[in-house]
Structure to design on (332 residues):
């Protein structure tokens, strides 16, 4: 049988804080799983991170840690490209071009922009507003077929598709129009304190999120304090947001179905259930934490890895950028 070329995947994560269990279950675990079937390109989106003010030393540390953590969860640079966004200049270059093909009205409708401008009312900068143009540049530079993201990024992907289609109408076949890939299971991990909100690494309430690198005691404490309800019955039902979230997490880390979980905890209180969820999460994260510590003690290896990946990415990115510039009418 003739072999089909592998489809190309692109995704990125911001180094805007400690990566959470939400990032892991909602995004990173899928990134790892996709590496054999697809040609994967993953980046640490440091350019996106400065849409919110960052302290230089802290940002540098977070970029390094995010990179190491991606390797620790199982992104294998032998199989996939794994680099730092700002190391490939074409991302910024194409972002400018795409921002000239993205409308004010479309950007104004982005919920992330509205949320973040409410949160950072003193710094509603142009980058925060044109964020989706940079994200579109990331994806379109590599002519990606699919983009695995959590449900919260769907709107940004739609804008990317609209911009790609718009450019293709003017300059035929310039871009591959990417499809979103939003996994159903574990797609949305909610805050442990406000289970109607997504778990977010930038939430100032540390009890609301579990970091992948949290110590076992902290993880257990956070689960013990998780907000539930007064019914005292472990079952998945509308209105039981806290318990539903814990069941989703437990299911994602153990592979058990809701029915199996309900049976296992039949007649038991929330205390027992929360302990079980906490322990299962600790067991899942332990090997990732061990590998992270190992990688962080070997900075040379990390540097060589990101440099090699960026070089390979650059070759692909420059090809697309050149094509776009020529089609637009620049002297390239
Ligand atoms: P921030 O709080 O800074 O907005 P974040 O925690 O939402 O950050 P991002 O860097 O925006 O994380 O997201 C990285 C990836 O993780 C995205 O694909 C996003 O959809 C996914 N993700 C983030 N939070 C969750 C969550 N709670 N549940 C599932 N997936 C998530
Ligand atoms: N905006 C995304 C991170 C991101 C991204 C991308 C995701 C930047 N560029 C390209 C997918 C494809 C976020 O905040 N999760």
């Amino acid at each position: 049988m003739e072999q089909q070329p592998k489809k190309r995947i692109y995704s990125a994560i911001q180094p805007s804080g400690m990566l959470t269990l939400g990032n892991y279950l909602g995004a990173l675990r899928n990134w790892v799983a996709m590496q054999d079937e697809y040609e994967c390109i993953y980046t640490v989106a440091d350019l996106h991170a400065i849409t919110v003010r960052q302290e230089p030393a802290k940002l540098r540390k977070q970029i390094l840690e995010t990179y190491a953590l991606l390797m620790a969860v199982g992104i294998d640079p032998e199989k996939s490209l794994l680099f730092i966004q700002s190391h490939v200049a074409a991302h910024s270059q194409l972002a400018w071009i795409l921002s000239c093909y993205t409308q004010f009205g479309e950007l104004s409708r982005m919920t992330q922009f509205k949320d973040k401008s409410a949160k950072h009312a003193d710094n509603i900068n142009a980058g925060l507003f044109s964020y989706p143009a940079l994200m579109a540049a990331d994806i379109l530079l590599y002519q990606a077929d699919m983009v695995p993201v959590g449900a919260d990024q769907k709107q940004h992907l739609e804008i990317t598709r609209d911009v790609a289609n718009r450019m293709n109408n003017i300059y035929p076949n310039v871009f591959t129009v990417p499809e979103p890939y939003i996994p159903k299971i574990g797609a949305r991990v909610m805050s442990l304190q406000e289970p109607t909100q997504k778990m977010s690494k930038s939430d100032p309430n540390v009890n609301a999120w579990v970091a992948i690198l949290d110590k076992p005691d902290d993880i257990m404490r956070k689960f013990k304090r998780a907000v539930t309800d007064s019914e005292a019955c472990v079952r998945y039902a509308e209105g039981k947001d806290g318990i539903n979230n814990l069941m989703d997490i437990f299911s994602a880390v153990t592979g058990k179905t809701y029915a199996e979980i309900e049976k296992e905890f039949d007649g038991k209180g929330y205390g027992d259930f929360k302990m079980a969820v906490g322990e299962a999460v600790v067991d899942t994260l332990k090997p990732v934490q061990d590998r992270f510590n190992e990688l962080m003690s070997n900075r040379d290896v990390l540097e060589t890895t990101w440099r090699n990946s960026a070089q390979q990415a650059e070759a692909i990115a420059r090809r697309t950028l050149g094509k776009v510039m020529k089609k637009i009418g620049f002297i390239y």
